[in-house]
Amino acid sequence: xxxxxxxxxxxxxxxxxxxxxxxxxxxxxxxxxxxxxxxxxxxxxxxxxxxxxxxxxxxxxxxxxxxxxxxxxxxxxxxxxxxxxxxxxxxxxxxxxxxxxxxxxxxxxxxxxxxxxxxxxxxxxxxxxxxxxxxxxxxxxxxxxxxxxxxxxxxxxxxxxxxxxxxxxxxxxxxxxxxxxxxxxxxxxxxxxxxxxxxxxxxxxxxxxxxxxxxxxxxxxxxxxxxxxxxxxxxxxxxxxxxxxxxxxxxxxxxxxxxxxxxxxxxxxxxxxxxxxxxxxxxxxxxxxxxxxxxxxxxxxxxxxxx
Length: 307
Hints:
The chain is mostly helical and 307 residues long. It contains 17 helices and no strands. The chain has helices at residues 16-26, 45-55, 58-64, 67-74, 79-86, 93-101, 106-113, 118-130, 142-149, 165-178, 184-195, 205-214, 220-232, 236-240, 249-254, 256-274, 283-298.
């Protein structure tokens, strides 16, 4: 499949019979009258493609579009012409329809990924995620690799594709800065990269601390990440123990939900402190141990805590 950058004025889109439908697409008039459900997607076109593959029934999506739009898109002879139409849709619904309802070969996806048209590249990244194939994304496409990193768990035989200074330098920080929800597979991807020393704990200690500080609910996957980080760099605990947690009686009395979350985080940190090499001791660890003993003493009758 040969891809050439297309514009609305191209011959493929310049059929007088199509002009009215193309105008409808540009104006967001995509859905058939009386459709049971209409669709909208947040984020860019890559996100729309990924979300559609996860959460949308392809047949339901097709059925929601007007007959004119379906006939216009399906009537085009090749992928290039169909995506030229999809590009006019600011809601990215047509792109979502095309990537979920129609079949693409590996060559199709590769040709999209190496196109000079950024829109086509973005569609190619979405298809790479949908098809669980990061190796087809050029390693120079850091944005595409990050989209995959945040969308799928990386398999061991795919990991080498993500090990580059350019990717590592942006992925961890970007994940913590931009992602409203950090899913389990993202943490597992960090663990995999850290396990092969692709992520330096020493150079990113502030990021580990901020992840622990900002996360209200910590689970076993987070524990695995931090245990590995402590194993790689035991004195990371010094930065972690400096976190200011509100576990005092005053907070318990006047803001119990906050106190309970902070106490559970305190016990999470306690497990990290217990994982330190035998004989490791510092002023911070001694102070933490004293604070822990005091917390037990004051709250010995509090059955809401699993102590």
